[in-house]
Give the backbone structure.
Amino acid sequence: MKIRAFAHPTLAALAISGVFSTLTLRAHAADPEAAKETTEAAAPSADAVKEAGKRYEAGLSLYSEGEFKLAAIEFERAYSVVPDYRVLYNIGQVRIQLGEYARARLALEQYLKEGGEKVSAERRTAVENDLQMLAGRTATLSIVTNVPGAEIVVDDRVVGTAPLAQPLLVDAGEHRVLVRAPGREQRESRVTLAGLDSADVRLDLEKIADRPTTIVQQVKGPEKSNHNTWLVASWSATGTFAIGATVTGLLGIKAANELDDLRNDPKATRSSLDSSQRRARTLLLAADVLGAAALAAGGVALYVTISGDDTEKPTPKPTGPRVQAAVGPSFTGVTGTF
């Protein structure tokens, strides 16, 4: 059988490039009865052997180029198509180069198990030495949960569902363990393992509906904008009433002066005197009322200003006089409660 060495200088082991040659011959056996007499399992189809051979050769080529991850994929694909134990040796050696010691150990252990007596003494010794080295770089991890069927994830890779049949073989180092299930609150843990360690991790999941619910009620105080509205409105009313009282008062004084001038005029009629008198009285009365309204509104504004400076206190309702100006075609006045 043809022997072909790996190109990588750090790997002294040999890879068998003729792995699929005997399978190819068996798949093309001319005598069907002879195929029935073989003690091997039913031979794979010719197409399967052909594909596996191409995958295997691609793996060798990629390995020689230093593309170890791609080489591992091709070797594993070849084994899945035609499960010949000799490919497991190649898988194990490539995984060692990648530093994936747990996967390398599993592949080499399976290689010895499936190969049995067909593995030469020299090759068995080399593999056993590799396994001894790998044992010091791997550890076992038992993961337990209270929810059967829960999905178990290690380092973002699903490794099975609970309960696991046996502890997991993992590389030495730090690992992130996560357990999740529908309707349950997922849990995770981190564990650091040294070579040859054996650790147990238990992650129980609680039902989402069973989690205690905390209700936080926030009591809001009066909004500052309400206080500002009262403040602006009260002072605006005070200013408006004060301006109105001033203007109306000036007009009333002017009307009163005009009334005095009219009284001294010998040509003035009685009707004009009465009209001028009514106008002067109305303006002066309106000035007095608006002045009173300005004082009342000023009191309210002062109250709001003093009592409303703390935003955490309720906005005080005006308790002072409530004043409203009233203007009509024949009168001017105010209405309100004092």
Remarks:
- The longest strand covers residues 173-180.
